[in-house]
Amino acid sequence: MEPCTSDEFFQALNHAEQTFKKMENYLRHKQLCDVVLVAGDRRIPAHRLVLSSVSDYFAAMFTNDVREARQEEIKMEGVEPNALWALVQYAYTGRLELKEDNIECLLSTACLLQLSQVVEACCKFLMKQLHPSNCLGIRSFADAQGCTDLHKVAHNYTMENFMEVIRNQEFLLLPATEIAKLLASDDMNIPNEETILNALLTWVRHDLEQRRKDLSKLLAYIRLPLLAPQFLADMENNALFRDDIECQKLIMEAMKYHLLPERRPMLQSPRTKPRKSTVGVLFAVGGMDATKGATSIEKYELRTNMWTPVANMNGRRLQFGVAVLDDKLYVVGGRDGLKTLNTVECYNPRTKTWSVMPPMSTHRHGLGVAVLEGPMYAVGGHDGWSYLNTVERWDPQARQWNFVASMSTPRSTVGVAILNGKYVKATFNFYLIILM
């Protein structure tokens, strides 16, 4: 009988796991250790082979012709001892406990030791902890550690939740250089530029003696031409700006933008460009439901990227007008399928209630509606018999409709928009309304 000559290969199960368990046992009993890491008052014996297998930092240190490669003790300057011990244990076990009270020390030490998987895990942990009260600190820490993904996420979170961020202590403690970076961003999610200016003034007053000198430099990042004229007039008399020549120059630049609307194309600058805000919601009002006019109203929120039903009009309407006045949604005129309407409804999104408003003097469908510097205008349309050139204005103070100058030409299914303090008309209709 001839012996078997075929080759065989044996693969031990859990070989790597058992080997590392044995090396971890050597670590705990300080056996066969060939290097000691010194951090503060703590001495941590370890094995060069294990450290260099996991950490690119130690691999470069122990495999190159440098002084540390031959030293039995390595001083780890500026490294937190507990974080270093936790990461040494990780090198043997592949396990690491992440907690709020140790995460920053672990991340900074992992960055130094070039433990890429640990860095990624720590960054993901911090991303989950983001909150308006800590996002600025996390953003700054990520920048200092060179963690670009974490910095980007923290920065975006800060911009998205800026209204809540400015109410927290971290904002008040920021240096002027960081405030400048925030104010320069186009991505700040705020309802208006006044919000940012008020945040800046709150920051300045937190340490007025030291921060007054930075005011004009930081004010240059505020888009003053986008402020209301009344707000600019109040700024001019504010004690913080009155005696600062550079601040006065910026205020005058903004006032010129308002006083000379015909020159605005020549006055464009980074300060006249609106920011990319997602504050507010988009309302879709009415439309057609099969063969009938729909009564439903839905809203779209950019933050959630979702449409949700919010209310129903009191009755069916087609070819009506919609406008926003004083944060309320007005539904004006239209037709119900049988007759042309002059009725007006008002929806309050905060209280989720409808109010019946005084009717227009004229029944109108296919009209255009817009708000111009306070009053609301109902333009043109059809009264069921003929096309209209008449225009009515709703005075919110007197709570009544009054006729104003008529159009030169009767128009129906007319669209109306505001441009440079005047209303502009065109023959189309559009029922998507942004409510801030």
TrEMBL record:
The keyword Secreted is annotated on this UniProt entry: no
Chief location category: cytoplasm
Organism domain of life: Eukaryota
Record has DNA repair as a keyword: no
Keywords: Actin-binding, Cytoplasm, Cytoskeleton, Kelch repeat, Repeat
Gene3D superfamilies, alphabetized: 1.25.40.420, Kelch-type beta propeller (2.120.10.80), Potassium Channel Kv1.1, Chain A (3.30.710.10)
Name this polypeptide is given: Kelch like family member 5
